[in-house]
Amino acid sequence: MKISVRIDSAAAQAQLRRWGGEYRAKVRAAVQRAMTTEATEIRAEVRRHVGGRMAVVRKSFLKSLSARVLEKDPNRLPALHVGSRIPWSGIHESGGTITGRMLIPLHGRVGRKRFKAQIAELMRGGNAYFVRNAKGHTVLMAENIREHDRPLAGFKRRYRKAEGIQRLKRGADIPIAVLVPKVVLRKRLDVARLVAGRVPTLVGVIESSVRGVS
């Protein structure tokens, strides 16, 4: 999810070249200050938007959303970059389909690395097997045995909560995950529209800042 807002038309660039080095540097600094000020507000608004549209479990997801000023190239006016360090977050902006055989944890969320390690441990111990349920879905199951209490703890807790079960008997079958051929994600975010709506304010702040340059 990358959105760049650039206020750097060909005419503006030509005018800066005509103005000369010292004045040009002052204008660039003024633009940078204005963008930096607005970036703080835009970042906060984007995070509120995402937090309001999605059930965010980890705060690190919201913190990955940033608005920063790109100003390293002295030959170009600064640009404002709004985006996320998480590469797959953009699919929530447009919606889409992820294809391939995937195991989706049941009854709650599990971190990808932790889920992979737990499944690997159950597989090594021979305590993971697939069944087809009444709806025709392929479900990964595990048996509630003592030697696998540790990797099964979270799955058992979430399963009991979902089914309203107080206690699971030893030897009971526990549904772990469902095997699916694809996952369809609907559009949930509209960050592009939000940022575009902030552009007039950003332009006004930049113009005001540049007018103060002497």
Instruction: Point out poorly predicted stretches.
Output: none
The DSSP helix count reads 7
Mean pLDDT across all amino acids: 87
Cα(first) to Cα(last) distance is 38 Å
Biggest sheet strand line-up? 4-7-6-5
Q: What's the gyration radius in Å?
A: 26 Å
Q: What is the helix/strand order?
A: EHHHEEHEHEEHEH
Taken together, the total number of domains comes to: 2
Q: Strand fraction band? A: 15-25%
Please tally the β strands and state the result.
7
The dominant shape is elongated
Task: Briefly note the structural class of the backbone.
Answer: alpha+beta
Task: State the share of residues found in helices, binned by percent.
Answer: 40-55%
Layout of helices and strands:
Layout: E1 2-6, H1 10-19, H2 21-53, H3 59-63, E2 65-70, E3 79-84, H4 91-94, E4 96-105, H5 112-124, E5 129-132, E6 138-143, H6 149-163, E7 173-185, H7 191-211
Antiparallel strand pairs: 1-3, 2-3, 4-7, 5-6, 6-7
Helix pairs in contact: 2-7
Provide structural commentary.
The protein is an alpha+beta fold and 214 residues long. It folds into 2 domains: 2-94 and 187-211, no CATH class; 96-185, no CATH class. The protein has helices spanning 10-19, 21-53, 59-63, 91-94, 112-124, 149-163, 191-211; strands at residues 2-6, 65-70, 79-84, 96-105, 129-132, 138-143, 173-185. Strands 4-7-6-5 form a 4-stranded antiparallel beta sheet, sandwiched between helices. The longest helix is centred in the N-terminal third of the chain and has 33 residues, at 21-53. The radius of gyration is 26 Å and the shape is elongated.
